[in-house]
Each structure stands twice: as C-alpha cells, then as structure tokens.
C-alpha cells in the first residue's frame, strides 16, 4: 500500500498531524450522522420517532415497515461506520498494521475516528440529536479497523446471532456482542505477546471497552424491561398498542 499521502499528513515522529486529528473525527461524525432509518421511514410516509419504540434504529424500522427495510438500514449504517475508518486508517498508515505496528497517537486518532462515527449515529444533528443505539455503525467501524479489530468484531456478530437464536431478544444479543469485543482483544493480545501485547493493545482495549459500555447504557430501558420480564422477543406476538416496548438492534 502506498502510504505517501499518509506520511505527508503526519508529523516527523510519524504521529498524526493536527490537521488529521481535527479532520478525521469531524468527517466521521458527519458521515455517521446520516439519519438512515429516519429517511427510509420518511420515504414511506412514516415518522419513525412517533411509532413503535420511537428509536431511529434498524429494528424499529424493520418492525414498522418490514424485515427487509431493517436489513437495508443495518447494512447502510454499518457502511457509514466503515467508510471513515477505512479512509482514516489509510491516511494514518494504520490500515493493515498490527496493534503494535503503529504509534500510540496514531492508534488513538484512528479510534477517535471510529468513536466519532458511532457518536454521529447515536446523536444525529439532523434529527434533533437523536439516533440509534450504535450497534450497526459500531460493527462496521470495528470490522473496518483491519486487522486489529476485524476478527473480534466478526466473532461478536456470530455471538450476536447465537444469543439471538437462543433468547430471541435482540437487545440482549447486542449487549453481549458488544461486551465480547474488548474481551476478544484482551485474549488475542495475551496470546500474541503476553503482557507486552496487552500494553501495545491498550488504546484498542480502552476504546472497545468504552464502546461496549456505551452500547449497554443505550440499552438501559431494555435492561429494565428484561428485569420486568416484558422485553419483547423476536417472533412473539406483540400486544396491541404495545409498540413502545420494541427492542432495538441499534
């Protein structure tokens, strides 16, 4: 890979320039803020903020317009998480490098780009700083962080599918999958180079831990419903007028 553009945007030490520190997260936030579910619902004459769980996520969209719409929304939201991360990784010279193959500052700048995309999705200025729950955009952003977080994110989506198949609760599957990512990063770092590997992976451990905590926090209403035994399950009949209890993928 030709890193001439990336090197020209870096300082003499190889760390990101102030321009990249400013531009990449801002650009990622704007890309992430694209209100996919809102626009798809509007295209069918539906105000997603007034139906179902009132969340601008793929599950609420899918429950309102049909499963194919939810899948389309998930795919677009994952893509808007991946695009700025791929571009940022290329400009930073981090794409394709192991966790110890880039400077700490470069790792943090790349991770800030991913976090900004997720934040844009969950707090979109185009719909009053509302949004989804960050699962699809976060998945896309982390998969795109090749190779450091690609495998942990891939394993997380497999775990998500397994938990969903057993429990039929989307919110539970989403939280467990999010929590599994920093755990996978820790195990991989230890297996690769022991404590030295963990030290090299600290930025990625911290960032994925923050993302996992954020996803769990965004699902706090779902947790309350699970504790009360009222969290809806996939395939279960929804009582009339109980749309607000729908779980969210995002």
Could you explain the architecture of this structure?
α2 packs antiparallel against α5 (67-92) and α5 runs antiparallel to α6 (104-122). The two termini are 34 Å apart. The protein has one domain (4-245). With 250 residues, it is mainly alpha-helical. It is globular. The chain has eleven helices and no strands.
List the helices and strands and how they pair.
Blueprint (H helix, E strand, L loop, with lengths): L3 H5 L9 H15 L3 H8 L14 H8 L1 H26 L11 H19 L12 H9 L6 H18 L2 H31 L1 H17 L1 H9 L22
Short note summarizing the structure:
With 250 residues, the protein is mostly helical. It has helices at residues 4-8, 18-32, 36-43, 58-65, 67-92, 104-122, 135-143, 150-167, 170-200, 202-218, 220-228.
Helix content: 55-70%
Domain tally = 1
Order of helices and strands: HHHHHHHHHHH
Kindly state the mean pLDDT as a whole number? 88
What's the alpha carbon Rg, rounded to whole Å? 19 Å
Q: How can the largest sheet be summarized?
A: none
Looking at the structure, what is the overall shape?
Answer: globular
What is the beta-strand fraction? under 5%
| Backbone structural class | mainly alpha
CA(first)-CA(last) distance: 34 Å
Low-confidence stretches: 1-8, 240-250
Number of helices, counting only DSSP H or I runs of 4 residues or more = 11
Query: Would you count the extended β strands for me?
Result: 0
